[in-house]
Design brief:
The complex is a heterodimer of chains A (671) and B (320). Chain A has 671 residues and is mainly alpha-helical. Chain A has a domain of 264 residues. Helix content of chain A is 69%, strand content 4%. The longest helix of chain A is centred in the middle third of the chain and has 36 residues. Classes of the chains: A mainly alpha (671), B mainly alpha (320). Chains A and B meet through helix 16, helix 17, helix 21, strand 3 and helix 22 of A and strand 1, helix 3, helix 4, helix 5 and helix 9 of B.
């Protein structure tokens, strides 16, 4: 049995788990059985994908099943790119299943989640293996619908129904764009197999149109600005382990779609593709994190931060496109490696952080940071793991987020050789945007962690929180460990990505595992190198040395006392810094333009002892200028077209007649 | 193998000790010069050492609701800053471990230190700690991108982000006078002032709570924890002066495999650079007033734009 057979069997078993969960609806062990099954299946699939990636990734495996289009069948293919994304998907899915083993028990309506969870996983797996347009779109839509049902699992909670509505509209729009893209790629002959698209040569205008459609289709799924509006609504609405899957994994499927079409099917890129993707990516990164800084809802912050990370990945992809268009294969390999490394990293730490948010939600029932605080005392393990996630996502050494950022910056430094002026001007500006996004992300996660886990509890419920069950903690612990390992041993990840870049851009980064001391050297040692494990050892060693020396030679006495606070210790926890006040300087610096942030202070007249009031208003400029007018237009048109529902039979027949005639006229003019 | 490594290991060890031992002296020197410029006597040069020893010997008073993070943070900050400072060439280039972290990684290590310090400021749950953390991250969101832009300029000119290579390249005549380097120097000075909480961005000697940034974050610390944090702050100042020294005045740096005499000469040159740098910092600080917190973004934004402009110039022409 070859690897692709085994993978398809895993998918089939996942698909079968859903109906099984429906059948066992009343049985109390159904939750455990369902998540246990998905855990085992996804681990198996991840192992197969990893074996493929580190083994014989260069030769693709294909298989044709007698399903799908009658004259084509359902084509599946397992190559290096699919293998990498299958590994990422199933790693995230396995973690979510492990987490679900514990978290799922708190679910009030398990029958709304259990059947669709494995279906969602199966859909994502199938997208990455599909080798014809029909299969791809079917799996894509299956994935979207399964996730939509999961978003609607708690449809009676405020705003979740609206989130689901916006999500399904945007998802349909995205699929439509992809459908048109594949239609253009397939051409009039209807070559829907990917192999046929790969063979065909596409006219420049057609390729440009396809690129725009893919940016709309895959980009809206991934959360590229300004098509991101659904993401911060839908991702938080789902149960937390599903949120983790949607943010950490499903956005990666969208990136897979983008890479598959632009790098693989569309032929040689033009240089300006890089400019477009770079600018969209850079703007998305900064916008996403600025939005995140203005939120108070834990899961919504994480969802906006996903948008930032997607922007970051697209910057890497844009650089790779620009380099590939200029035949700089080595540089393209570096940029693509950086992007894919970040894909891997983001799956790890975003899943971890959503699990953490889920744990907080389980323990306190709250997602609003302003009602939390001091959880590090009540939930020590969760707090530690979330801290690791926060440090990793803030791109700080020695964790994994830093490595992918470092690689991206190294790729930017290689762009001096690009000949086109558009790229010469865009790249440094994008570099600045990336650096800004990275530091804003650090600010965002200081705020998230500081307000939620540190300080004093702001409500009674936060003061009495209990740490979550062992399964959930194990899932977080494993992901935290992987974040550290990928950060201190990045060479192995880079080597694992080599077959992917070899296949996509025709070059690979130099082999890293053989570099002495396990450093990573993207180009040459005289240019740049980084050694995560040494940095980690140095920091650990010097902090332990400092502790040992000070405790031995100086003092180790500790006295607990009330907080000093400049002599004015405030008894009420309401007087400590809040999420709103922490974000105030950043809101003033970055938000006055972006969000039209306004602050109004109402001071009572002198002598009056009534409290002063501070009112902050923020506006979502993108929603106001893009979505709201569009929605109004649709409403307006629908209102007027509504009259068509109340015509007489005579007029209906006339309408049919005129449509037929106009279609025939079009056909006559066309040919 | 071991015998070949030994001299390198010794030099690396010496560098680690030198930065650790010199940094309080630099702080004391800056304070002394500032005091003399204000016609005060000023504390003795060795006062920072005495302060550190006194703090180390005292018991640490920790707030009742402080978590483990509060107690661990000082050591983590110290370790990250020390490692970063040990990787910047001071008296010699080509240190044994200099390849383990390039300039970007050094900046990021300082970023890690700041991340934890900002968290520690929020740990006890007081308003002053929060105000310090919140302003610190606001300053960082502008200072760090500016720093990355400076790194871009240096890396594009020298063709490397490796600090040793950059320093070696800066000693060759190929550098010449460049507009972009001038911009980088200006931007780096602005960033260094902001990062080290110096006037006009922050005041290291302030005792007025509402104007504090760095001092507000560490308000709850005492005893050995405070000592370690102060030492880390001195190390950071030394790091930035070393960085400016090794990139913009790289003369005297001992190259790889040089003899003892060259190293001693490099050490003397380094002390000289610190002396001049510290003096200029003190003069600058006494001649300018502290700015309001919300003027800081303008100040750092200018640094960021300078860095961006310099990078853009290099993309336009490699000789600018």
């Amino acid at each position: 049995m070859s690897d692709i057979h085994a993978l398809l069997l895993c998918v089939a078993a996942l698909l079968a788990t859903g109906p099984l969960a429906v059948a066992l609806n009343r049985w109390p062990g159904a939750t455990r059985l369902c998540y246990g099954a998905t855990l085992l299946l996804t681990i198996a699939a991840a192992a197969i994908a990893a074996g493929r990636l580190f083994g014989d990734a260069a030769t693709p495996l294909t298989i044709t099943l007698p399903l799908g289009l009658p004259w084509l069948g359902a084509l599946f293919r397992l190559d290096a790119l699919s293998a990498f994304f299958l590994l990422v998907i199933n790693l995230g899915a396995a973690a979510a299943s492990l987490y679900g083993l514990g978290y799922g028990r708190h679910e009030h309506t398990p029958h709304r989640v259990l059947p669709f969870f494995p279906a969602f996983l199966a859909g994502m797996n199938l997208v990455t293996m599909a080798d014809d347009a029909f299969c791809f779109l079917l799996s894509w839509e299956f994935m979207s619908l399964a996730s939509w049902v999961l978003v609607m699992a708690h449809h009676r909670v405020d705003d979740n129904a609206r989130a689901g509505y916006v999500y399904i509209v945007m998802a349909s729009f995205g699929t439509m764009a992809l459908l048109l893209a594949f239609g253009l790629l397939a051409g009039p002959e209807g070559g829907y197999a990917f192999a046929a698209m790969r063979e065909a040569t596409h006219a420049p205008w057609l390729a440009a149109l396809v690129l725009i459609l893919v940016l709309l289709g895959a980009g809206s799924k991934a959360g590229l600005a300004p098509l991101h509006a659904w993401l911060p609504l839908a991702h938080p609405a789902a149960p937390s382990h599903v949120s983790a899957l949607m943010s950490g994994v499903m956005t990666k499927v969208a990136i897979y779609g983008f890479i598959r079409i632009t790098f693989d099917l569309l032929g040689t890129p033009a240089w300006w593709w890089g400019v477009v993707v770079l600018i969209i990516g850079g703007v998305t990164a900064v916008l996403g994190v600025l939005y995140a800084l203005m939120q108070n809802d834990l899961k919504r912050i994480l969802a906006y931060s996903t948008i930032e990370n997607i922007g970051f990945i697209f910057v890497g992809l844009g650089l790779a496109l620009a380099f590939a268009a200029n035949n700089m294969a080595g540089a393209a390999a570096l940029a693509l490696t950086a992007a894919l490394f970040h894909v891997f990293n983001h799956t790890l730490f975003k899943s971890l952080l959503f699990f953490g948010a889920g744990a907080v939600l389980t323990a306190t029932g709250e997602r609003d940071m302003e009602k939390l605080g001091g959880l590090i005392h009540r939930m020590p393990m969760t707090a530690l793991f979330v801290l690791v996630g926060c440090v990793a996502i803030s791109a700080l050494p020695p964790f994994n987020g830093f490595v992918s950022e470092w690689l991206t910056l190294q790729a930017i430094l290689l762009s001096l050789g690009l000949p086109q002026w558009g790229l010469k001007i865009a790249v440094p500006a994008i570099g600045g945007l990336l650096a800004l996004a990275a530091t804003l992300a650090a600010a965002c996660f200081v705020r998230l962690y500081g307000i939620t886990f540190l300080g004093r509890p702001r409500t009674a419920i936060a003061a009495e929180a209990r740490d979550v069950d062992l399964w959930s903690r194990a899932a977080m612990g494993i992901l935290a460990l992987l974040c550290l390992l990928a950060g201190i041993l990045p060479g192995f990840v880079i080597d694992g990505l080599a077959p992917v870049t070899q296949y996509m851009v025709g070059a690979r980064m130099p082999a890293q595992a053989s570099v002495p001391w396990l450093s990573i050297v993207p180009i040459a040692e005289s240019r740049s190198s980084y050694n995560g494990i040494l940095v980690f050892i140095f920091i650990t060693f010097s902090s332990l040395l400092a502790v040992a020396v000070i405790h031995r030679l100086a003092s180790r006495a500790v006295r607990r006392a009330p907080a000093w606070d400049c002599g004015f210790p405030d008894a009420s926890p309401a007087l400590q810094y809040t999420a709103g006040s922490f974000g105030q300087p950043l809101r003033r610096v970055f938000g006055t333009m972006m969000f039209r942030a306004r602050e109004e202070v109402e001071m009572p007249p002198p002598g009056d002892t009534s409290p002063a009031r501070l009112q902050v208003s923020l506006r979502d400029v993108i929603w106001d200028t893009l979505y709201a007018p569009l929605a109004n237009l649709v409403l307006f048109l629908a209102g007027h077209l509504n009259r068509l529902q109340f015509l007489t039979i005579r007029r209906y027949l006339g309408l049919v007649f005129f449509s037929l005639v106009s279609l025939l006229v079009v056909l006559a003019l066309w040919s | 193998m071991m015998s070949a490594l030994l001299p390198d290991l010794l030099i690396q060890g010496a560098q680690m000790l030198v930065v650790l031992l010199l940094s309080p002296l630099l702080t004391g020197f800056v304070r002394k010069v500032k005091a003399r410029l204000l016609r005060r006597q000023g504390p003795p040069l060795l006062q920072p050492y005495r302060d550190l020893l006194r703090l180390l010997r005292k018991e640490a008073v920790v707030a009742e609701n402080a978590s483990w993070l509060f107690r661990a943070t000082p050591y983590m900050i110290f370790a990250a800053t020390w490692v970063a400072a040990a990787l910047v060439p001071t008296f010699a280039t080509g240190l044994l471990f200099s390849w383990s972290a390039d300039l970007i990684a050094i900046i990021a290590l300082l970023g890690s230190a700041r991340f934890f310090l900002a968290l520690a400021g929020m740990d006890v749950g007081t308003s002053f700690g929060g105000i310090g953390s919140s302003r610190e991250v606001m300053i960082a969101t502008l200072a760090e991108p500016a720093m990355i832009m400076i790194v871009f300029i240096l890396a594009l000119i020298a063709g490397s982000t490796q600090l040793s290579t950059v320093a070696a390249f800066m000693q060759t005549p190929a550098v010449g006078l460049r507009v972009s380097l001038g911009m980088a120097l200006f931007a780096l000075l602005m960033v260094a002032i902001a990062e080290n909480a110096r006037i006009p961005v922050d005041n290291p000697a302030t005792h007025l709570e509402l104007t504090m940034v760095h001092e507000a974050m560490v308000l709850e610390y005492s005893g050995r924890h405070l000592a370690v944090i102060e030492l880390a702050a001195s190390l950071k100042l030394l790091l930035y002066l070393s960085l400016i020294g090794c990139v913009f005045v790289p003369w005297g740096l001992a190259p790889v495999g040089a003899g003892w005499a060259t190293h001693i000469l490099g050490g003397a040159a380094y002390v000289g650079k610190l002396f001049v740098g510290g003096f200029m910092l003190a003069v600058f600080e006494t001649s300018i007033a502290k700015m309001r917190v919300f003027r800081v973004p303008d100040f750092l934004g200018a640094g960021l734009m300078l860095g961006l402009l310099g990078t853009l110039l290099l993309f336009v022409s490699r000789s600018l």
